[in-house]
Write a structure and sequence with these properties.
Order of helices and strands: EEHHEEH
Distance between the termini: 30 Å
Helix content: 25-40%
Strand order of the largest sheet: 1-2
Strand content: 15-25%
């Protein structure tokens, strides 16, 4: 598990690798802009409380959600 300190007295947990593994192992497919963190509590006992929103890129690989990936 990768944990980062964002400099604002907040820790962020990076679940992209775990989510990518779940997506690949279960042959899941998502659209860019979908928050894919739900696969963590659907397929594992993990609830992603300290994680920023995560979506997928055009190759279905997990990336951090940005305004651009949200389509805003």
């Amino acid at each position: 598990m990768n944990v980062y300190y964002n400099g604002g007295e907040e820790f962020i947990v990076d679940y992209r690798e775990d989510i990518g593994k779940i997506i690949k192992e279960n042959d899941l497919s998502f659209e860019t802009g979908d928050d894919v963190r739900s696969v963590l509590y659907e397929y594992t006992p993990i609830v992603p409380v300290y994680s920023p929103e995560i979506t997928v890129d055009e190759n279905n690989n997990p990336i951090f959600m940005t305004n651009r990936s949200k389509g805003d």
